[in-house]
Each structure stands twice: as C-alpha cells, then as structure tokens.
Write a structure and sequence with these properties.
Layout lengths: L27 H6 L8 E7 L2 E6 H13 L8 H18 L1
Antiparallel strand pairs: 1-2
C-alpha cells in the first residue's frame, strides 16, 4: 500500500538541485505540505549513499520520544527514578 499507513499526509515527490555551495531549495509544494517556514531549522540524516531524510526539530523530537517510550516498562516513572537518584546523590554528598 502506498503511501505507507504510518504517513498521515499526501506524499509528494519533487526534484531539487544541489548547487555548488551545497545548498538545496526545497520545492514550494513540499514546503507547503510539510508546513515548513522560512528560517526553520531542519535536521538532515544520512540513511545511506545518496539518501537523506530531512526532519523538523519538532518531528525529530517526536520520533525520539516515541522510540524511547518503547523502552519504558509499564507503570515505570522515569521522573520518579530520576528524582530518587538525585536524592541518593544529595544524601551521599551531605553524609561525606
């Protein structure tokens, strides 16, 4: 099935040219569909020879959160664990 079910938007395929300074202009239709704004910082990931993935910071953060959430055990509170570690460290500093 194309596009893959994980995509919730229209997949647009456009072409762009890399200039001699290494710059690439993202076509207007892609910018519009992806809600990209002028000056927005993007993350570029190499996925293999000749293959790039471009993500907004927000999208990259969301992906990282989704991947890390899979590592968390059900009912586990990462915040509580962090705070308990800090309490132990503070107690050790105060005792020593």
């Amino acid at each position: 099935m194309f596009p893959p079910e994980e995509y919730h938007c229209l997949v647009i395929m456009s072409t762009a040219t890399l200039d001699k300074t290494g710059r690439i202009v993202i076509p207007a239709d892609v910018r519009t569909q992806s809600d990209l704004l002028p000056g927005e910082e993007l993350i570029v990931i190499t996925e293999g020879p000749g293959e790039l993935r471009v993500l907004t910071r927000k999208a990259a953060l969301r992906r990282a959160q989704e991947r890390l959430a899979k590592l968390k055990k059900p009912g586990e509170s990462v915040v509580d664990e962090f705070l308990e570690d800090r309490r132990r460290e503070a107690e050790a500093e105060n005792a020593g």
